[in-house]
């Protein structure tokens, strides 16, 4: 009889981890495994298993799990402990309403401080999206494009909240973009947004961003209500 592999089998640890880096290494390793699907939704993430895997005490593991919970990647379930959080579900409208508020403010703060190098970097992500066919990479490039536009906001806490929302969207797109029938994220939106940013037209840029995100919530809400989405949810 074939022994069933544990969910953590896909995580490889290279050698001993210095004590002062343990928390950050564990956090980043788990974060990557959750985002790329090696740790699927609902997977229990037990402290002792992680401590054994990384060769550390449970203290840095506990700290890393707290950070991932704060980022919305883990949930604490009664009698089960920490589990990998679900993808965007029926609260997509509320999720995007909050994202619009946070991202609009980050963009508003960032635009006056962005440099030509920032503009070129954002344009580069648009060009990469134009030729990319891998859905995992499309989600990543979309996140990087938006974060580039927000990156000069001086409010670090705001940026962390914004990135948490983009991480959630990236994770959702990674597993659902193909089924949603969207071969590409709207490039017209991205190009118009970047042009307004380059012209430092903040009111127009914010309006275009809100339009872009509202279009996203319409597509996702429609998809979540479709038979295809329900079948995928049941199959997980």
Automatic annotation (TrEMBL):
Keyword Transcription part of the UniProt annotation: yes
UniProt domain HTH gntR-type: residue ranges: 20-87
GO-annotated molecular function: DNA binding; DNA-binding transcription factor activity
Cited PROSITE patterns: HTH_GNTR
A Pfam family assignment: FCD
PANTHER family in alphabetical order: TRANSCRIPTIONAL REGULATOR, GNTR FAMILY (PTHR43537), TRANSCRIPTIONAL REGULATORY PROTEIN (PTHR43537:SF41)
Protein name as annotated: GntR family transcriptional regulator
Organism encoding this protein: Pseudomonas kribbensis
């Amino acid at each position: 009889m074939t022994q069933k592999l544990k969910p953590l089998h896909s995580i490889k640890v290279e050698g001993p981890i210095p004590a002062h880096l343990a928390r950050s290494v564990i956090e980043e390793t788990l974060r990557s495994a959750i985002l790329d699907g090696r740790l699927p939704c609902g997977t229990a993430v037990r402290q002792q298993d992680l401590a054994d895997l990384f060769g550390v005490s449970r203290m840095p593991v506990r700290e890393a799990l707290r950070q991932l919970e704060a980022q919305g990647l883990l949930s604490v379930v009664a009698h089960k402990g920490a589990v990998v959080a679900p993808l965007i579900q029926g609260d997509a409208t509320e999720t995007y309403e909050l994202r619009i508020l946070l991202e609009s403010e980050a963009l508003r703060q960032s635009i006056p401080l962005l440099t030509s190098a920032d503009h070129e970097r954002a344009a580069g992500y648009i060009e990469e999206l134009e030729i990319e066919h891998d859905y995992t990479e499309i989600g990543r490039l979309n996140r990087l494009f938006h974060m580039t536009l927000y990156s000069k906001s001086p409010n670090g806490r705001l940026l962390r909240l914004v990135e948490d929302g983009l991480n959630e969207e990236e994770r959702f797109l990674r597993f659902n973009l193909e089924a949603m029938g969207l071969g590409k994220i709207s490039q017209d939106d991205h190009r118009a947004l970047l042009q307004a940013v380059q012209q430092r037209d903040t009111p127009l840029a914010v309006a275009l961003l809100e339009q872009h995100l509202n279009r996203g919530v319409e597509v996702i809400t429609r998809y979540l209500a479709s038979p295809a989405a329900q079948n995928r949810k049941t199959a997980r």
